């Protein structure tokens, strides 16, 4: 089952309002956290158990807020010429410890004739590939291989492919994975791919997803190649 995405998914005014509320919620949460910690010091054993549940829930709220703010942040700020190879190697190295801990090996292949330059925001694009690799890791709880392949297309695009051997995505869910808050994970936020889609769209790129349940998932990111000269 294949799905192609090339529409712009921008945050509405309502989204911007939500982002400012998210900011406001942070302050009272910091004070909740502080007082929870203070109470912990003098609490009984039962009290400590309840307080650590509260503490975990506050951490989870913070995680959701951080990801939400990341998604609603305006893009197109720090654009520059970037070499794809270095970018991908950097991300793969960063994610390697997390993969190894889960018995996952990453195999990276560059199928390019020349070095390939794109025009984009380095840190946003890194987040894109980190999110995709993180999802691949989470889809393979018992280990496996992630194949990362970088190639060019005949229409002057670079294709970054991230293929896993995980549980795959059911056909009826494939339409929803880029929606904010759609998650099938007990501790997921469902914001990763929404952010990914937004960043790729702002870079005039497209995403293709190909998935077979029980076999694995293949994400392809296409970005325009830019000549520096
Ligand atoms: P989260 O990872 O927090 O659940 P994402 O937006 O990153 O949120 O992903 C949304 C959903 O898409 C996931 O919950 C999962 O169901 C599905 N998904 C994304 N990538 C993969 C993958 N590589 N393999 C299987 N399912 C995936
Ligand atoms: Mg994710």
From TrEMBL:
<feature type="domain" description="Histidine kinase">
    <location>
        <begin position="20"/>
        <end position="227"/>
    </location>
</feature>
<protein>
    <recommendedName>
        <fullName>histidine kinase</fullName>
        <ecNumber>2.7.13.3</ecNumber>
    </recommendedName>
</protein>
<dbReference type="GO" id="GO:0000155">
    <property type="term" value="F:phosphorelay sensor kinase activity"/>
</dbReference>
<keyword id="KW-0418">Kinase</keyword>
<keyword id="KW-0902">Two-component regulatory system</keyword>
<keyword id="KW-0547">Nucleotide-binding</keyword>
<dbReference type="GO" id="GO:0005524">
    <property type="term" value="F:ATP binding"/>
</dbReference>
<dbReference type="GO" id="GO:0006355">
    <property type="term" value="P:regulation of DNA-templated transcription"/>
</dbReference>
<keyword id="KW-0808">Transferase</keyword>
<keyword id="KW-0597">Phosphoprotein</keyword>
<keyword id="KW-0067">ATP-binding</keyword>
């Amino acid at each position: 089952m294949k799905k192609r995405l090339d529409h712009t998914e921008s945050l509405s005014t309502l989204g911007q309002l939500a982002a400012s509320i998210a900011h406001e919620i942070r302050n009272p949460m910091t004070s909740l956290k502080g007082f929870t910690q203070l109470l912990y010091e003098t609490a009984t054993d039962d009290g400590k158990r309840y307080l650590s549940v509260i503490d975990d829930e506050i951490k989870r709220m913070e995680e959701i807020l951080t990801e939400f703010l990341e998604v609603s942040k305006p893009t197109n700020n720090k654009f520059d010429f970037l070499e794809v190879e270095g970018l991908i190697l950097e991300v793969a190295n960063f994610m390697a410890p997390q993969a190894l801990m889960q018995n996952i090996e990453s195999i990276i292949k560059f199928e390019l004739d020349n070095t390939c330059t794109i025009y984009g925001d380095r840190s946003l694009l890194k987040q894109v590939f980190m999110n995709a690799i993180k999802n691949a890791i989470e889809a393979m709880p018992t280990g496996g291989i992630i194949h990362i392949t970088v190639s060019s297309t005949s229409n002057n695009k670079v294709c970054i492919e991230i293929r896993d051997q995980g549980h795959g995505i059911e056909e009826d869910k494939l339409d929803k994975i880029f929606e904010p808050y759609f998650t099938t994970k007990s501790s997921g936020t469902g914001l990763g791919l929404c952010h990914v889609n937004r960043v790729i769209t702002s870079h005039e790129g497209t995403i293709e997803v190909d998935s077979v349940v029980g076999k694995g998932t293949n994400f392809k990111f296409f970005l325009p190649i830019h000549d520096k000269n």
